[in-house]
Amino acid sequence: MSFLKVKDLSVFFKRNTNDTQKAFAYKKDIQVVNTVSFEIEPSQIFGIVGESGCGKSITAYSLMGILPNNAYSEGEIIFNGQNLTTLSGEQRRKLRGNQISMVFQEPMTSLNPVFTIGYQIAEVLMTHKGFNKGKAMTKAVELLNAVKIPSPELRVKDYPHQLSGGMRQRVMIAMAIACTPAILIADEPTTALDVTIQSQILKLIDKIKKDMGMSILLITHDLGIVYENTDRVCVMYAGRFLETAKTIELFKNPRHPYTIGLLKSLPVNKNIPLSPIPGIVPRPDNLPEGCKFSNRCLFALEACKEQEPDLMPVSDEHYVRCIRAGEHLWKMA
Amino acid sequence: MENGLEIVSVLNLQKYYTTRSGFLGRKNILKAVDDVSFKIKKDKVFALVGESGCGKSTVARTILLLTEKTAGTIFFNNRDISTLKGKDLKAYRRFVQIIFQDPFASLNPRMRIYDTLSEPLKVHKTVPVKMYKERVATLLDQVGLNHSVMNRYPHEFSGGQRQRICIARALALSPGVIVADEPLSSLDVSIQAQILNLLKELKVKNSLSFLFISHDLNIVQYFSDEVGVMYLGKIVEQAPSEELFSKPMHPYTEMLLNCIPKINRLQNSSNGYDDKTDTPSPLNIPKGCPFHPRCPKRLKQCELVQPVLKEYNGRAIACHLYLI
Fold first, then answer.
1. Is A175 exposed, middle or buried (0-12, 13-18, 19+ CB in 10 A)?
2. Mean of the pLDDT values across residues B160-180?
3. Which residues of chain B from 246 to 265 reach within 8 Å of chain A, CB to CB?
4. In this predicted model, what pLDDT tens digit does every residue of A264-289 receive, in sequence order?
5. Which of A216, B49, B66, B132 has a 20 to 30 Å separation from B298 between CA atoms?
6. How many CA atoms lie within 13 Å of A1's alpha carbon, on the beta-carbon side?
7. Do A199 and B218 touch (CB under 8 A)?
8. Residue of chain A nearest B157, judged by CA positions
9. Is the pLDDT of residue B271 over 60?
10. Distance in angstroms (rounded) separating the CA atoms of residues A104 and A188
11. Which value does ipTM take for this structure?
């Protein structure tokens, strides 16, 4: 049984059609996520890795139903047999924070500075579970304890500014897991934190997964985090999945030139020179023809510039969007 | 330790800030940098690593004279820089340049790239006016940008390109030392590698020395020759880069190295540290060894006596485990 199934999800941004910009109104909407499909099983951590602007956060927002007003999505998001995209705003709101919840990147800005952290956690329970305030506050202490905040009875009365970045991210996680959701989306949860705190938070997320059997979508740009924490991973570029596989398989046997390029960009040893990917990430309104990576690819052929390849299987559960996927480019790079 | 001509040496540097809790509250002393000494050697990279708030950027700013130090001395070619005045001071400022972390905030949005890059030339009058264009073009060449970009504004560039412009600005006065304060942390992985390669190439070509500040230990390992690990304003371990990374000795260094997510570590193997504590606030540094509340190897005396930085097997280390 799979908890969350995403089928051919696309996200578009509308062009600004103000009077001043009528000249551009004929242009098509900008597509930032292009027909992505994936499934997340219970007690699984599914990773999305990619550079900034590749569409990973927007994918998460569309799962949560919190896309900005000028954006819309197509495709299906099936959760517990229900297609979320057909639900009304009110129905989506009942799921959000209750069945599907999210931890954001910036623990400094995503908490409300004028309420105590205890109240902010309790609010989730009062809204979704109908708890009265007393009961919700008791539960909030338990949750703070579960995310390993020391002396939680005292800390519930603290305001966000009294906590460090790592502690705030723990509070965010406590809020996210308050209603024991089936799905937790973590969008770069540790990017703003120090490595030591990062390792604490990632351990906590792993523990929550094991204890509560949650499905977790972990979005990150750090391949090391992906390697150490995820079960399955997909590599995203220009709104598309370029490669998806079991994590161990992807790192042992990377097939897409972009994945290979990312791995070769990481400094490992002083004596091995870095071979970075040339060029820069293209803007979503100005993508190259054919394969979207062809203009930066070291292995591109003429055919790559003509037609975009499909995501094709190369082995069991390993899919690659590249016409040269079968050639073991990793060994040639 | 390795030989090499030292260009800038820092001796017992201190930077204290006083803060008040409330309007009439008690005065507190924040020891941002406490008794830090190191040397930047010719053509070498000295790296400072540590968690946020440990004082690495404050060290950089005091060296650049952007922040006034509380005590200690900074020597430049064996002269105390606090005694420099006039022409000599200007020469020092020309010789030591900085690359900041955020290329979005460190370029003036209202200045064209040409103006940004020629401003240092105007201030220091190193090049005659009619040569400005040529000089700016050479600078852009060096950082791998096209000459035509000099008429554009910063908003027209991506993060990686902006960081290249910031590097070009730092090179404008042909400096000898570059202080790079987290120059890669706001960039994407593939761009990071491009900029890192560029820095490495420029270092050899222009025979530059670096003070390199980063929290990314993989990058530090790749780029630096010597590393100082800072914790709450103090250097706790200082060693040649290869030695430090192959055999970390201070428990804090060990913890930092263990916390970096690694691609070749066995999956699900715990990194051995079950650290639940936060970094203490620099306003409230623990007594004894400042690291003892988090240290898995602490001894009795760690809670009472603060260890001093001492030579040990060719490196400097401040830990009771190695003070027999």
1. buried
2. 95
3. 255-256, 258-263, 265
4. 998 887 878 888 899 888 888 889 99
5. B49
6. 8
7. no
8. A280
9. no
10. 7
11. 0.84
